Amino acid sequence: MDQKQIYQATVAHYLSPIREYLEDVTVSEIMINHADEIFIERDGSLVKTPARFADIESYEIAVNNVLQFTGKSVSDENPLIDGRLPDGSRVHVALHPCARLGTVMSIRKYNKSVLDIDWLVELGTATDEAVEYLKIAVASERNMLVAGGTSSGKTSLLNALSTFIPKGQRIVVIEDSAELQLQQDHVISMESRASDRYGRGHVGIRELFRSSLRLRPDRIIIGEVRGGEAIDMIQAMTSGHGGSMGTLHADNPFDALARLETMALMSKVELPITALRSQVASALDVLVQMNRSLSGHRIISQIAEVEGLDDATGRYKIRDIFTLKRNPAGSERRTSLAWTGQKSLQAGHLNEDEEGLVTEKTRRIFESD
Predict the structure, then answer these.
(1) Backbone conformation region of residue 295, classed left if phi is above 0, alpha if psi is from -120 to 50, else beta
(2) Residue from 136, 126, 179 nearest 289 by CA
(3) Dist. CA 273–CA 127, nearest whole Å
(4) What is the pLDDT of residues 127-141, one digit of tens each?
(5) Topology (CATH) of 3-108
(6) Regarding beta strands 80-84 and 45-48, do their DSSP bridges make them parallel or antiparallel, or are they unpaired?
(7) Dihedral-angle region of residue 160 (phi above 0 means left; psi in -120 to 50 means alpha; beta otherwise)
(8) How many CB atoms lie within 10 A of CB 114?
(9) CATH number 3.40.30.10 given to 118-366
(10) Among the listed ranges 4-8, 64-68, 84-88, 273-277, which one has the minimum average pLDDT value?
(11) Which residue in 43, 67, 245, 259 has the most C-beta neighbors within 10 A?
């Protein structure tokens, strides 16, 4: 039995109180607030379970065992810890005193199923027209960001969109904790590394991004943009790495651009704000907004294109291509994603191969007037 199998067996033993939820494919997340207070997320809704650990000591032992798999340990010096279970599920642990009432652990389960674009249609808000638009945007190497709140489906959407990347391209994927499941033949997966207890060996997203540029990528995909690496991504997008994609936390496309700008300012690169905004507007082409409805369903609420900067105000200009529209009374769903009537900025500028992807469903979006 190799080391990974040993860890799988021991983790399964120590997490036996929640094993049924780890094995339940309908459960997407397990949240342990205390040894005897365990919630799960199932079909977008939070449910309190009857599961519990025997006592606090057995719970703490389970947490230590989970962290051991990634070479990490519980300590006062490092009270916030990220890790992974042997099956790839993402784990976050918060220790006292950061977690005031004691150790908290959340397990975001690794989805083993391969998501394709049909998943978008099953959401009920992505029409065939919107799906075809996104397919053309990815194939034509437009730089894209997927924005949304926590657990809104950003990573799942990025997985689905990646199926549209043409075969034969070299893709470098950069993540804090591996979640993306790209199905292309030529994928280089890179993951950040925390420093050890002595502060040595840290490798962040920014360092990985700089390394990726030396690996001759056709496309770069960042699981989540969250810091100073934003400036490197922006500059890469404007210097020949078209078709790059990533996710970030934001409530709407305007906030996504403002947040990206703020994160770029977190870097030590000194750049006037007007020059930075110009680069952001030039780098990004398409913004896809994900939201989680009150019922727990994850939906695409908006697809917009970045037009540039307003000459008078210097602020970002976006063009809504698809937005949520209210359906007539009596419809199965209250809202659905619909074309706004705005032409894509790509209208009349697609090359011959890209033109071949346009069908009657999207012709009105991409035809020039």
Answers:
(1) alpha
(2) 126
(3) 38
(4) 889 999 999 999 999
(5) Beta-Lactamase (3.30.450)
(6) unpaired
(7) alpha
(8) 12
(9) no
(10) 4-8
(11) 245
Beta carbons within 10 angstroms of residue 18's beta carbon = 21
**In the beta sheet, which residues pair with residue 106?**
31, 92
Q: What pLDDT, in 10s, does the model give residues 63-91? A: 888 887 766 666 667 788 887 777 778 88
Distances (CA, A) of 288 to 190, 299, 303: 24, 11, 5
Q: What is the mean pLDDT of residues 174-200?
A: 81
Count of all residues that appear for the chain in the document:
369
Structure-token pair, residue 140: 């034509």
pLDDT on residue 132:
92
Longest distance between any two alpha carbons in the chain, whole Å: 70
Write down the domain spans for the chain.
3-108, 118-366
Which residues contact residue 298 at a Cβ distance below 8 angstroms, ignoring those fewer than 6 apart?
44, 123, 151, 152, 153, 156, 290, 291, 292
Average pLDDT, the chain: 86
Q: Look up residue 325 and give its DSSP letter.
A: E
Q: Flag whether the pTM goes above 0.70.
A: yes
Instruction: Tell me how far apart the alpha carbons of residues 275 and 257 are, in angstroms, rounded to a whole number.
Output: 14
Query: Which amino acid is present at 115?
Result: L
**pLDDT at residue 155, as a whole number:** 85
Angle at 65 between CA 62 and CA 66, to 5 degrees: 90
Return d(Cα 270, Cα 141) in angstroms, integer.
Answer: 29
Question: Do 248 and 256 form a contact (C-beta atoms < 8 A)?
Answer: yes
Residue 175 to residue 64: CA distance in whole angstroms: 24
Closest CA to 68 of 2, 8, 108, 16: 8
Quote the Cα angle for 239-244-245, to 5°. 145
